[in-house]
Amino acid sequence: MESAMGQVLRRGDSDTPADCATDSRITGQGRIGNGLRYLVLSAHDYRSPRKANIHFIARELAKRGPTRFFSLRYSLLSRRTGDPRLSLDRHANRIETRDGVECYLWKTPVHPFNTRRPALRPLENLMYRGYIALASKVLRDWLAQADVVVFESGVAPVFFELARRLNPRVKTIYIASDDLDTIEVADYVKAAFRRAAPAMTTIRVPSRALLPEIPSRDNVVLVPHGIDHNLAKPSAGSPYRDALNAVSVGSMLFDPGFFAEASHRFPNVHFHIIGCGQPHHPSYGPNVTVYDEMPHDETVRYIRHADIGIAPYRSESVPGYLADTSMKLIQYDFFGVPAVCPHAVTGDYASRFGYTPGDGVSVEQAITRALNAPREPSRRHLSWGEVTDRILEPSAFPDTEVPK
Fold first, then answer.
1. Among residues 178, 179, 228, 333, which one is catalytic?
2. What per-residue string of b and e applies to 388-404 under the rule 16 or more CB within 10 Å gives b?
């Protein structure tokens, strides 16, 4: 059975040798880590239009030294899950350079996944062992050549032991973008991370709420998400034509019921929904416009000029760490845009106004308070360069220390 699995995985690999890629050195702009060779392992792809924190960190790494981004857990099965990397499918299994970052989307006929069935756990484990044993030649070459390997939470830590075996002196950094239980990774992945955690050079958490889930302490640092401070510079004008505008961006835990309530309670507000992954709902009022996913710069224009921002998570049971890691909430606060979100993710941000999902009166009260709130950020946000400096050399920054 393992042999058959090996044949399936092997067909997804590329014949392109790693040393055929252009090794572009980028002029370092950060203060720390210049000249090192970086490799990022993630289930995202650097070329994806939708950006997460790992994209911005990779962009900063590329200012410091040659940087590669290897995208994992992508296969023919990804079509069934609506994987956001599907638009890059024709670029799979070949090395490409985007904005100075070498990229590789490793596509296999199947990839390992959490079956959520205890009886299938042995098969699940076998799939992960096969995925590691038959790792892409490009991945092996890039692991062997890196000075620093960045593992993003998710499947990436299963390759920690391979990285150390191929490159015993490599510096290893874990980026805890999410809690592993929250994103429902397989038990095999959780066990791999528990084994790897104490041996990692650095484990970066962006929120105190994630600390209880980390199985080590001495190598853990607290570094919040950043934002591109260039966004504050004058930009294109407002895309809005109405007097009052509310914007929602992204698809995570998207709750259409919020807009069914809000649009009828506030007919004077135009609600703009960007990239929710769902069509216009029949319960929406005529003052709701739904847009496909936009380029990041265009999305920022909608955020910057909005009267209020909305994070319409569909449940109060969302993970508490989203208060610190939600990119849309960070962007709203950076621009001083009052935000409406479930109580669970208001955190200690004065610019956020909480509601209870499913409670129309609560939604109305939160929007009313947001519309009357001052337009100002609640705190100073680090730039992505400052974030990356802290991740690479946390001992140089006292603010990265984890409270004992």
1. 178
2. bbbbbebeeeeebebee
